[in-house]
Amino acid sequence: MPNPAPAFRVAIVGVGSIARTHVSALTELAGRARLVAIAETDPARAAEFSRRSPAPRVYGDAESLFANEELDLVHICTPPQTHASLAAAAMRAGVPALVEKPTALSLAEMNGLADVQAETGTPVLTVFQHRYGAAAVRLRHLVREGALGRPLTATCETLWYRADDYYDTPWRGRWEFEGGGPTMGHGIHQFDLLLSVLGPWSEVSAIAGRLSRPTDTEDVSMAVARFENGAMATVVNSVVSPRETSRLRFDFEHATVELDHLYGYREKHWRFTPAPGHEQLADRWKSDGGADIESGHLLQIQAVLDAFENGTEPGVSLDEARRTMEFAAATYASAFRGRPVSAGELTGDDPFTSSMSGGIVPWAPGKQATA
Predict the structure, then answer these.
(1) 258: which of 7, 45, 180, 270 lies 20 to 30 Å off by Cα?
(2) Do 78 and 86 contact (CB within 8 A), yes or no?
């Protein structure tokens, strides 16, 4: 009987709250992946994490981690403003990086990561876990096959609620630390899933505002998008909505497919409605009876390990993540410039390539100066 393949050696950089989600997924994948080390600049946080999680070695910074460990994958779970530099360091150390969203704070940083990836041949991946739920995978398969007909319209709504004290954390709600508001930090998961189904977008028209929260960034944005295939979609991102929901709806020629959940979905959160004369498609939509696992980090990490084992490209690739990031940048550019923005328009020294704010936010900062 052949020996099982050795487990992938994994490390985590940054052990704040999201790192616990990664550890939970890695624990589920025991035998395939093994957490061998962590890097954390806060000694107290590192000690607390080590008491609860099986990380044999602890380093005070990522540089020491990369210098002393042989790794197959590193999970970057630090605050957003550090993502790009840590991902670049990982690639230069020859270690594929799985980075929490957003991959970077700007298109310029994404371009820099693309240069390092081309130089090193080592991939940087982005956590967009909602792509990996079984129903989303099935939907994309049916779309590629053409079974549902042409995509026509879609709606994408991330209607969440964050109270004022959410912004007491000094780095929250600041362009220079988070890149933006709910467009970058909350709704991006839903419209990334939208883009993974509808494909390349061609034009965005948007509005944004700070309506209620004590933040420098927006707390609401709304966009209307056209896609290369002719489809049109609306995208709403909010943190001022007391009844929270995350909704997606796709209207194809032959069916409507809907998703209504909050932070993760299962089969029960989807609804499939065939158009008259296409009732047979309901059978194509049915689950294959496999495990009904909530969309989340486990499924994406599992898919990354599968790709490593099979020698295929793991997801979500830098190119695909950049398309999603460009959609966010175009939303801000359109909202603040008051005109539509085309795909590929934000290049070179355009202010919206170096900052999602473009330096022209039309409202005064809402954070306390002492924060």
Answers:
(1) 180
(2) yes
